[in-house]
Amino acid sequence: MEAHSTEVTLEAEPGLAEPITAPFSQYGREDWRIRRRRVPWTIGKYVGMEAIRTVILCILLVSLLYCAMVTFQTIRSGIQFAFIWPFLIKTFAYPLFFSLPLALLAGVTLAYGRMTADLEVAAIRYHGASHLQMFGPVLVLAMACGGLGYYLNGWIIPEIHFEKNNLQQYIIRQLESLGSGVNRTILLPEGSGSLFVGQYNGTNLNRVQIDMHRDLQSTFVPQVRNQLPQQLPETVTLLAVEGRIEITPDRRGVNLHLRGVEILVPEHISGTKSGKDSFIQKFSISESITIPLSFQSRQRKLKDLPNPGLNSQIDEIEKRIAIGSGEPELERELRLALGERHRRNAFSLSGLTFPLLGAALCFMASFTSRLVPFFMSTIIVLVTFYPLLMVGTYLARSADIQPVLALAIPNAALLLVTAVFLQKVVRK
């Protein structure tokens, strides 16, 4: 029997002028409005929501842990929670300058890592979407994070940093509103010592004990110099039967009026077996003494200046140098100011480079676990960005290299690693 071959030809339907193209790519020469409708907005929304949920959770976790640590340290130092809780609300935003880029890195790598492990990326690529289109949501989130980071680093973080190191007003408010009670410890300004009150009623105190470091010793020693040893140790203790607190009219200081004062001066005993023995010398002061406590506001440093103030200071220094007073000290101040400005910019750009690195790593290899790209990208960031940031900060302050170039090294290194990963993605 002779075999016959049959050839079947499928013709296009009469209503179709062109073959059906891929839904996401292979646009050819179609009009841009048609291509815009075929952009995978659903994929962008899906990936973006997956990443945003993780970002919010990571930011909340880091900020809450930081606030809890600051609260514990502040209350332990003697300041009541009722006086500092408004400051702690602001402190919630303080760690965002480093937690926001890391949180976005975690959100992107966990989202794309899960999609890669579940073969969702392979399915999306099979239906015509390119890796560049899947990079769209990451790029949008990264640009938003970079803009928010620039605002935080330039305006919000300097103000919080200044208040964090300038808590004198909280101490004055606490001393002014003691109320009544027993056994109260209050931190004194600038680490000069601590004040313990056995019983208090408003500004009247009983059984007062003050542990005074060297800075505070100089405020009372001139009054009783002839009754104390020539040299005093690092810390001495003052005991008073009763006392009274007086807030200065300008609210920048406090005067402690004490009566029935005894000063305990520890003295080391040499030649003993342990070598750590000491005895306490007690000096009784017959007259009343006054200890002034100064609460002068802390001067703003470079980290405390918002961007407009920092830029104004840089302009002023540059004008002074241009006039002709090229002193080495001015050159050093200029390098420090420029280094601070570009350090902030480096943290702002990290909100862009961190997630791009994480997404490129997820696309480069097909990981079976969603956590592997997260840990790998975090390790790359920790061993690349932060060490290079420290090196760049040092070079910006002390070397001949321009600060803008020195502090561009960390993000440039991450972009280089990201480019290597993307090249491997394209080849794959």
Describe the structure concisely.
The protein has 428 residues and is of the alpha+beta class. It has helices at residues 32-37, 41-76, 81-91, 96-117, 120-126, 131-164, 168-176, 214-217, 307-323, 328-364, 371-398, 403-406, 409-427, and strands at 180-187, 193-201, 204-212, 236-247, 253-268, 278-285, 289-294. Strands 1, 2, 3, 4, 5, 6 and 7 form a seven-stranded antiparallel beta sheet that branches.
Plain-language structure description:
With 428 residues, the protein is α+β, with helices and mostly antiparallel strands. The chain folds into 3 domains: 32-164, no CATH class; 178-294, no CATH class; 302-427, no CATH class. Helices cover 55% and strands 16% of the residues. It has 13 helices and 7 strands. Strands 1, 2, 3, 4, 5, 6 and 7 form a 7-stranded antiparallel sheet that branches. Strand 4 (236-247) and strand 5 (253-268) form a beta hairpin. Helix 4 packs antiparallel against helix 6, helix 4 runs antiparallel to helix 11 and helix 10 (328-364) packs parallel to helix 13. It starts with 31 loop residues before the first helix and ends with a helix.
Number of domains: 3
Radius of gyration: 33 Å
* Beta-strand content: 15-25%
Rough outline: elongated
pLDDT < 50 stretches: 1-10, 19-30, 32-37
Reported for the largest beta sheet, the result is: 7 strands, antiparallel
Cα-to-Cα separation, first versus last residue = 51 Å
Q: Percent helix among the residues?
A: 40-55%
Number of strands: 7
